[in-house]
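R.M. (postdoc): so does anyone remember the format we settled on? I'll just put the structure tokens first.
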């Protein structure tokens, strides 16, 4: 290839899609060629060895382990260890890891003062991202980009340990109740649930069915390769910003209704269908209306051209959890009817409109007693290990600062004329 007066050797574009993408990326780097890809829809912005996603065949794996196996056999903290350190922990490693996390669940009392400054109508996601970012002030050594691995590891433990405390406190701020302090005799999810729901002077026993269901939901949300929030964490971290600031930025990216807010939109849609008599056929027909199509929330995914594998697991979990808790939620019936009808309708099948992870997760959260504006906060707790793993990998790879290029479309030369 001759370009700009220079000759370039064309890459051999053979092999897997990944290898081809890497070759093409090398060519772009040599020639300075830029391709327009608004929103990074198809650009491989990084190589990564964390999460494998095959959207054609509906496969999702963390570090080579199938999501189905992890969701059934592991705990959330085992999966967090796997994502962050690359392997499933041995018993001894797991005990050390969980004991370190338990040691750091408390937060500085001054952070409570920051919390008290938030009005009680604050959205818990804004409170969460602010409190996470405030850790840069309480642990200023996190601002030093030359910190060694041990120091970085301590920040990672602090994040995992404190996020349930911040999340529960963001909820307490919203409802105007006093906060609860962590109970380190409990496991990760039980401690979070107790901080969320225990009231002063009242006994609160965590339901093990609820804690287990929450643990599984967190596993299913733990990573999903590059997307809006994850690439935000990587790009902010690429400037050598602190891990706390990078994760806080990821939380803000997740907050948007198109990303983490989708399961809330599903619940609102299902409630609206229920209020309108529960006629799912009417809404499927409306979704096909060429002139004014009704948007079926929780259907389709930018990456999955097949079923979202997380949706299958969540659907089963919704059945199990609601049955175990003795809850008969009419919107679960509406959701299943919508799914069944859509999967048997060529219109939806041809357009790959299958239910995604968000379709059933809100129904379970609701059954667990989690209020709607906490759904995205739960997503953030689940995604935290993935963000951390991605931040750590970016740092270990010594990746350069992210610097997207643009294709200018404005005026070329304009004559300056004084007023
Ligand atoms: C996720 O789990 O992050 C969502 O499915 C969004 C995505 O990956 O695009």
């Amino acid at each position: 290839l001759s370009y700009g007066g220079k000759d370039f050797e064309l890459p051999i574009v053979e092999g897997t899609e990944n290898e081809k993408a890497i070759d093409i990326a090398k060519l772009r780097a040599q020639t300075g060629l830029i391709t327009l890809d608004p929103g990074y829809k198809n650009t491989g912005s990084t190589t990564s060895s964390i999460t494998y996603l095959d959207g054609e065949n509906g496969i999702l794996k963390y570090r080579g382990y199938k999501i189905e196996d992890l969701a059934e056999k592991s705990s959330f903290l085992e999966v967090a260890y796997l994502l962050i350190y690359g392997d499933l922990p041995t018993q001894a490693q797991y005990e050390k890891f969980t004991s370190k996390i338990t040691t750091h669940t408390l937060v500085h009392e001054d952070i409570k003062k920051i919390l008290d400054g938030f009005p009680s109508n604050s959205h818990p996601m804004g409170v969460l991202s602010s409190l996470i970012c405030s850790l840069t002030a309480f642990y200023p050594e996190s601002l030093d980009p030359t910190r060694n691995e041990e120091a970085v590891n301590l920040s990672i433990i602090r994040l995992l340990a404190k996020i349930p405390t911040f999340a529960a406190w963001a909820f307490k701020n919203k409802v105007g109740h006093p906060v609860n302090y962590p109970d380190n005799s409990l496991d990760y999810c039980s401690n979070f649930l107790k901080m969320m729901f225990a009231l002063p002077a009242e006994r609160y026993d965590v339901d093990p069915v609820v804690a287990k269901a929450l643990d599984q939901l967190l596993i299913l949300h733990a990573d999903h390769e590059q997307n809006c929030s994850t690439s935000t964490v990587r790009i902010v971290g690429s400037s050598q910003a602190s891990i706390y600031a990078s994760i806080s930025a990821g939380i803000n990216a997740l907050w948007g209704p198109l990303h983490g807010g989708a399961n809330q939109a599903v619940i609102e849609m299902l409630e609206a269908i229920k209020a309108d008599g529960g006629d799912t056929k009417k809404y499927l027909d409306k979704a096909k209306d060429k002139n004014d199509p009704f948007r079926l929330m929780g259907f389709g995914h930018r990456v999955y051209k097949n079923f979202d594998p997380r949706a299958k697991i969540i659907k089963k979990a919704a059945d199990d959890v609601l049955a175990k808790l003795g809850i008969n939620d009419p919107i679960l019936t509406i959701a299943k009817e919508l799914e069944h009808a859509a999967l048997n309708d060529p219109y939806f099948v041809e357009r790959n409109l299958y239910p995604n992870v968000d379709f059933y997760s809100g129904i379970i959260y609701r059954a667990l007693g989690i209020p709607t504006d906490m759904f995205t906060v739960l997503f953030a707790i689940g995604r935290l290990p993935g963000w951390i793993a991605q931040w750590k990998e970016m740092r270990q790879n010594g990746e350069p600062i992210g610097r997207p290029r643009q294709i200018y479309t404005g005026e070329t030369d304009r004559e300056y004329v004084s007023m």
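R.M.: ...and that's the designed sequence above, right after the tokens. Also worth knowing: The mean pLDDT is 93. The longest strand covers residues 51-54.
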